[in-house]
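Deliverable D5.2: sample structural annotation.
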Amino acid sequence: MSTIAIIGGHGKVAMHLARMLSDGGHQVSSLFRNPDHRSDVESTGATPVVADVEHLSTDEIAELIAGHDAVVWSAGAGASGGTAATYAVDRDAAIRSMDAAQNAGVRRYVMVSFIGSRNDHGIPESEALFDYAEAKAAADDYLRGTYLEWTILGPGMLTEDVGNGLIEAAPEPADNKISREDVARVAAFVLDKPETAGRFIAFNNGDTPIEDAISVA
C-alpha cells in the first residue's frame, strides 16, 4: 500500500485516478481549490485537502505532501484560464510542487502533461493553446532537471468516453484522442512501476493493453 498525493484532485482525470487507487488499497490525499468540491472528492475514497496551489508557497505545498510516497500533478488552468492563470498554475505552481516534493523527500513524481509538450511544440503564438503549450513545456523541462523519480504522461485530446484499457504508446500514435479514464489508468499503472521513471510516455487510443503498450514503447 502506498500513500499518494494528487494535486488538482477535483479534475476529471484525478477523480478517476483517486477512485482507482483507493479501490486498490492505496491511501490517497486529493488537493483541490474549491471547498464546495469536498463531497465529490470524498466520494472517490480519497482524503480531501482544500488547497489552492496557485497561491501556496513551496514550503506550504511541502507541508501538505510530506509523508506521501508519490505525488501526481493533475492540476491546470488550461487554455481557457487566460495567459496569467495558465503560467501561474501550469508552469509556476507546478514547478513549486516539484521543489516541494524534493524538500519533503517525496521522490516519486508523475506529471500529467500532454502529447505535444516540448519546446518545439509548433503551436503558433496566435493560437489559444500557445500559452498552455509553453507553460507545460517549461514545467516538464524543469522536472527533468530535478532528482525526482519522474514520469511524464503525454496523452492527446481528452474525451469523456468510457475507457477500455487499450492504448498505443508511441511518439506519434495513429489516433489523436484518449479517454480521461484511460489516462487515469496509465497514471495508476506507472505509479506502480518505478522502472518508468525518467520517461516521457506519449499515448492515445489503441489496441494494446496498457501494461504491454508501455513496456514495449
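Annotation notes: The chain has one domain: 3-216. Residues 3-216 form a domain with the Rossmann fold fold (CATH 3.40.50.720).
The annotation will be released with the project's public dataset once the embargo ends.
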